[in-house]
Amino acid sequence: MTAVASIDYSSTDTSSTDNGGTPGRRAVRWPVSLMLLVLLLAGCTALGPVLAGSGWWWVLLAVAAGVLAAAAGIRHARAPVALVPILTTGVLVALLTLLFGGGTGFAWLIPTGDTLTRFSALATAGIRSIQTQGTPAEVLDGILFLLAVGVGVLAILMDTLALGLRWPALAGIPALVPIVVPGFVLDDGADWAALVATAVAYLVLLRVDVHLAARRAEHHSGTRGLGISGAGVAMRGAVVVAALGIVAAMAVSVAVPLGGDAGAGGRPSSALFGGAISPMINLGQDLRRPKAGPALHYRTTASEQPYFALLTLDDIKGTTWLPRAVEVDPDKSVGSIDDPPGLSDGVARTTATTTIGIDNVSTDLLPVPVPATSVAGLTGDWFWNNDTRAITSIDSTTLGQRYTVTSLELQPTREQLRESGGRYPVGIEPSLALPGGTPDLIGETARAVTTGTESNYDAAVALQDYLRGNDFSYDTEAPVEDNYDGGGADVIATFLEKKRGYCVHFASAMALMSRSLGIPSRVTLGYLPGSRTTTVIGGLNRYNVDSHDLHAWPELYFVGVGWVPFEPTPGRGTVPDYARPESSAAPGQPAGGDAPSVAPQANEDPALQPGTPEAAAAAEQNLTGALARAALIAAGLALILLVPGVWRRLRRRRRRALIVHGRADASLAWRELADTAADHGVPVHDTLTARELSADIRARRGIGDTPTVRDALERLLVATERTRYARTMAPAEAGSPRPPDGTVDDLDLVVHALHRGSSVAERLRAVLFPASLSSPLLRRMGLARDPAGGQDAGANDQTPAGA
Prior knowledge:
There is one protein chain. By secondary structure, the protein is α+β, with helices and mostly antiparallel strands. Helix content is about 45%, strand content about 10%.
């Protein structure tokens, strides 16, 4: 392994010894730590469009500052270098225990078993929130915990790279992580302002490193100003690295967004938030598409065409509804599914069979008629949950699935619903909660609409009739234009004033108003029954469901019956028999209003008909686009990995140019040869003389046994020794001595021989991860001792001989 010299960032305090081993010096690293903090937080600003509010940023500031301050303190206490990341990780765990442990930690800082259990629950809730929220996502405790863990790990990594390994140039790579995240979520990718802020912070970090290293060099040389030229070279190199990093970040950011016509519910705008079926806000984006995309098709024996449920949301936080956090139970396979909770034997029911084929939906949530009692024909392992009725997989998706669902058609009567009463089960009580700060308008409207009703059922029908009445209209654009999109309490209060919106607003409004009256409620996401086709298979019509059939509807809980769906959205779907007003003349018609048009509309665009050549071409185009995005992502990551090699090649070209133009002497050629030797696995120590290093290089295959190469190496050695040890010229004779003719040719000959004589692994490592760069940014640019042997600190690639 190549041994390289390192520099210490030092002040003039001579009271102690730093942990790098330099006697009489105390390391000063806090400016670098401070700039690492600025760089990391600048990168985190790119998350602003993805996350709601700004409180999360201050939590990240506290965690990052605590971690970096702890690392600086541990180094100041002269802990072994290898222990610094380990001890800093312990500090991060203590910070997480303090902030997220909920008092379970010993002395609030030391985690216990209960703390680890809480952390696991927070991580699970955070992942689920990420999978189900739209953007900007409400930063709940689980998401905030994951953010804090992530920024803490990034801070430790950046500190280790910049101060532990003395490689500050690579400390910018972890800062790119939060920058590329928006590319996975937003159509526009990363924010330019965040990119510029991060780039500026990165360059300032390198400039601080330059300044501290220059001070070190001045102290050793006893002369001021010798590091200025080297600083200029370093900053030019820093600009190159920063530019490459920004271009790579932008390539990944632009490549990753999975927007456009990705198919019905198939990640229309988000690969992280929103999962594959975009809930709430992103559901509106699907409905606003000019052209619908095919989602699924089915045949059924049901007497009424079923709705297809994907996910139920019963926990409202801030601006969005969320699913209840549940664990997958491997014992609950879909071969047999229990009856839904709360359903009594007195409710009439029939059994229906529905055969479903997925056309273009990729998610781990299975669309099924509810309540399902069994599912057959699925690929992969799928499990059901009795509380949410969601069917999920941990190892498969819906794409390409063909399966058969056996489900119940429930027919509760108005009398059964009206007579429903008694205490709600404990598991249902959370579905009565309203978020803090719920506008009074919601409860006031609910009470006004239900005045005179005698049961929860009558109140629910009154709320449904009110929302389906003539005062409200279905509109997917108005919420966006007036900035009240989504399903949160504040949004619904605005919706009740504007009286224009789409299914998310109607479903959320009925659910919130029901809760304000003491009726448990939740919101279900899924698909409408779709459009009937003329195709008949086995005596059953085929129905097509597309992305415009995405829908949200409320479910209310009635003791003895269970969760009962309602349809408050005008012009969409059909109102169940039990929920129709008894005075209505037509199904689904609100009292006193015209009957809405609820007949499904068939797709007229042939490109959207499954099985047609146009549909196949569209699918092929989607695949081509996905492959192109994957190629761009790979190119962006490859560009980041190529930064060290590109930097090393630029340095080699710069050195050759200085020698060719007579601006540097033979010692610079020897320095380049030493770096090349180190890159190819030759041990290069700062204690080696030039002649000792020459002997090690001559021992490599293709050099000592090749006369022309051996002679070229000898000429380089002699020229270098003559430059370093020859008699110093008088001032009148001094100038800028040129290297001997043929120095560059000799250098190229030896360098190429070194490369050819190395193994394939050594060549690859020399090109991609040059060992000569495994020290701080400036050490080998003349601001420290030259490991090639004998060059004092203060010289650099641009310094003419004798300067």
